[in-house]
Design brief:
Rossmann fold, 2 domains, six-stranded parallel β-sheet, three-stranded parallel β-sheet, 10 helices, binds nicotinamide-adenine-dinucleotide
């Protein structure tokens, strides 16, 4: 079997056109331009690229994006002071603090300090709780992007066995929570670093989602023939980006697969724009 390539770039481009049209309509009616404030601490090269891509994507969709750069040696209170300032600024609708933060900083109190109404990453405990109860204010961007991919590709989730590798707060855990909600109706198994005999479990998946952070961790023997494989991983190996799935071998077994780059990544950005527009609409009501 040769897997169908799922073109995340193309799906996200269609999604961004819709967001641009809705933003133009909103701004035309209210005179308000939705604004995302991104906070970047230090000089991690990957984070700089991510933030730049997010800024560009905002601008192309008619959203305003402002970047707040803080030096590597920023203190916890300086960072939280900036978050407070952005919380208090009525022109800012969404706040994003780019992770990871330098070692001296604790991300949890920073993310907790973001006003839930402006938490466009969907990481605040209030928003996580609402999402878990199936009444989300904002859906976290990466799992939301994956659901949009599955929907766009008409991949049936109802009754499907979805196996997720990874239990992070930003991908694995919310992905599982979203796939078992009414409407998605999947049966979910979550694997992690202590899971035994992982290949036996992944080989039962109708939909296999890899968010492990280990280059090419998933190989064809771990995939049920005909399964859909979603590769969340972004790993830099010898200046090349590779996913958490061994693409060549997996393509011979799966029925459909997302590439890296050009799969989940662009969808994550599109969903961030969607949340920023939603935040502006909600704050304007
Ligand atoms: P993380 O690094 O926080 O956690 C990795 C998870 O993998 C952990 O839950 C751990 O239990 C599990 N794991 C580690 N070793 C394992 C093993 N041997 N067997 C089974 N499970 C194991 O993960 P994250 O932040 O969710 O990121 C995962 C990957 O996704 C990274 O490559 C990251 O760069 C990428 N990512 C991509 C996007 C995107 O937009 N495409 C967004 C977020 C993260």
């Amino acid at each position: 079997m040769t897997a169908r390539l799922i073109d995340g770039k193309q799906i996200s481009s269609a999604e961004r056109s819709t967001i641009a049209a809705e933003t133009a309509e909103f701004s035309g009616q209210t005179g308000i331009v939705p604004q995302l404030a991104a906070v970047l601490v230090g000089d991690d090269p990957a984070s700089q690229v991510y933030v730049r891509n997010k800024e560009r994507a905002c601008q192309k969709c008619g959203l305003k994006s402002t970047l707040h750069r803080l030096p590597q040696e920023t203190t916890q209170s300086e960072l939280q002071q900036l978050v407070k300032q952005l919380n208090d600024d009525p022109a800012v609708h969404g706040i994003l603090v780019q992770l990871p933060l330098p070692d001296q900083l604790d991300a949890i109190p920073v993310l907790d300090a973001i006003l839930p109404a402006k938490d466009v990453d969907g990481f605040h405990p209030e928003n996580v709780g609402l999402m878990l109860q199936g009444r989300p204010r904002f859906l976290p961007c990466t799992p939301h992007g994956i659901l949009r991919i599955l929907d766009h590709e008409r991949i049936e989730t109802s009754g499907a066995h979805a196996v997720i590798i990874g239990r992070s707060d930003i991908v694995g855990k919310p992905m599982g929570a979203m796939l078992i909600q009414r409407g998605a109706d999947a049966t979910v198994t979550t694997c992690h670093s202590r899971t035994k005999d992982i290949a036996t479990i992944t080989a039962q998946a109708d939909i296999l989602i890899a968010a492990v952070g280990i280059p090419e961790f998933v190989t064809s023997d771990m995939i049920r023939p005909g399964a859909v494989v979603i590769d969340v991983g972004i790993n830099r190996v010898n200046d090349r980006l590779v996913g958490d799935v061994h693409f060549e071998s997996a393509s011979g077994t799966a029925s459909a697969i997302t590439p890296v780059p050009g799969g989940v990544g662009p969808m994550t950005i599109a969903m961030l724009l969607r949340n920023t527009l939603t935040a502006a609409v909600q704050q304007t009501r």
